[in-house]
Records
---
Amino acid sequence: MDLLEYQGKQLFARRGVPVPEGRLATSPDEARKAAEELGFPVVVKAQVQIGGRGKAGGIKLANDAGEAEAHAEAILGMDIRGLTVHEVWVERASDIAAEYYAAVVFDRSAKKPLVMLSAAGGMEIEEVAEEKIARLHVDPLVGFLPFHGRRLAFEAAIDADVVRPVGAMLAKLYDAFIGFDAMLVEVNPLIVTGDREVTALDAKVTVDDNALGRQPEIAEMRNPSTEDPQEQMAKERGVTYVKLDGEIGILGNGAGLVMSTLDVVAQAGGRPANFLDVGGGAKAEEIVAALEVLLSDEKVKAVLFNIFGGITRCDEVANGILQALDQIDVSVPIVVRLDGTNDEEGRRILAEADAAQLHPAKTMLEAADLVVKLSKEGAPA
Ligand code: GDP
Ligand code: MN
């Protein structure tokens, strides 16, 4: 579960991580009052679960009440990369002398938390050169020790006078990461103010969904209206769905098969739009639910349905697909690869239906090549 910036900052504050004082507002009038209480200048920040808000015009400085109200008016309702802004966080503005990057992530391959620090903050971390990011794996049984913080600070070559406070900040972020069962705690930027105070200016916290049972306060922070519209729709319909940013919709039965389908499509030169596991789902209503989620993403230009029949029978899946096509309007091509139990029968059913959108395929490679080709044909010139 991804938290909004202000929710992350509330958690930080509980673990002693310094954050600027702020208030939440859902209307321009509330933003004005919040700003007056805080004192000027303030920063009005869009609360959406996506980075790059600054560049998108979702973060604005206000020097008086009128400006705060006007900025909130402009930002509320704004669309930031597909997400609508419903709330703004009004925060006392910070005087920034330096911007760093700090994060704690769970590194699955090392099976350990990984702490990162870079002097190149404020920009997207993907754009920062590898060697400019200091990294340290933490043994979870030993924990994060003070010298770990200093070592990272030296390695990242941050200003010498803040090595100790930044090291201490990393220890607190690690403490928050563990205490809140997080998978990610990212602070970009971590700033040094003009008075050389170290403060978290942004907060990105992802909490392990499996831990929400013992983090009831965090579970209550879930805010469906700010989630990605497709992911929200998927959750409501009980579909396992992860949005990616390509144009080929992927559907399969079984997480492992879907994962390998993503790889094969990428290998064929396509970019997957999502991960969608229909499980054993062969019933028309399950396929309708999955296709509706998938097709509500306007970027999807073609769909690959990859089914390996085991207990799930391919003929049932074929019938389910046909019934689904009767119920919803599908304008993009759908490549269907059926293999396994009753696959011949399934392909025969699809071929006889003679639906213009359907393209049966036998092997995964054949299906991937075809779907990539069709997605490009359909693309506007
Ligand atoms: P993001 O664009 O979604 O990552 O949002 P951030 O909270 O990281 O803000 C983006 C940038 O806006 C920061 O890197 C700062 O340069 C700037 N910014 C945000 N808050 C303040 C502030 O209080 N004072 C100043 N001077 N700049 C700020
Ligand atoms: Mn940021």
---
Amino acid sequence: MSCEGCEPQIVDYNSDTIFSWCTNCGNYAITAATKRALVAEGVTPKDAMLVYDIGCNGNGSDKIKGYRFHGLHGRALPFACGTALGNKNLTVIGSAGDGAVMSEGIGHLVHAIRNNYNLTFLIHNNANYALTKGQASATTKEHIPMNSSPDGVTADPMNIMSFVLALKPSFAARSFSGDVKHMTSMIRSGIQHNGFSVIEILQSCPSYNKATSHEWYQERVFNANEQEDYDISNLENARSIAEDLEEHVALGILYKDESKIPFSKRLKQRESYNTALVDEVKPFDVTKLFNKYR
Ligand code: SF4
């Protein structure tokens, strides 16, 4: 560990727990990018709250240091939002997969965007339920054989960014697990943004997602923010560029609206408060209550 009061280092976030992901899984790179972004933003582990969902992403919850919470399937967002509301001094990063977010937890995504809670949310989109061995999810492409549908999925696939953009988010970005530098930059921008930052990460899952491999994405992704005339405040343009998930797959901050008021500023009742809720409850002894549920 680096010293108390020193700038954080990557080593501060390193855990001794042995990684259990498959070889070449995109989760290794996502974890590396998360650590790099936190360090680059000067966030120490004691100021970071990392919330994980059930899924292969969730198996990363003990592979990194910081405060961590491993929630129920599809429910990472309520825990992350609650933490961000309770302690505004923490940097909150939630992680969940496409299965959890676009099915069980889809309502939470809708309302987190509407309320503009201040946190960064990483959607690990590997287009399947990987932890349970390759069942189709809402983002699996049509007609791709999966373990739950050997003759191919018949439902239309969902495009996460198109869905998110339809809800007028304050920050929407897309990245790719094959590019640690780009993911780091997107997560840093998400942390800096005052509001709900959604980052879809197109993630390779070499074990179960054969349709959109690392190489498949690598041949198709491009950085929209490198286009000279790309305007991140143009919602219609973002919607249009986000649609293509076949030929030219856009990465980058696709849309940002700084004028959307974060949740913390929406509550008139708390306008005069500078304290965090977690500090305000300190005078109350809740030990008895906790002990009741031990
Ligand atoms: Fe990664 Fe897929 Fe293996 Fe899960 S099943 S650890 S997502 S490669």
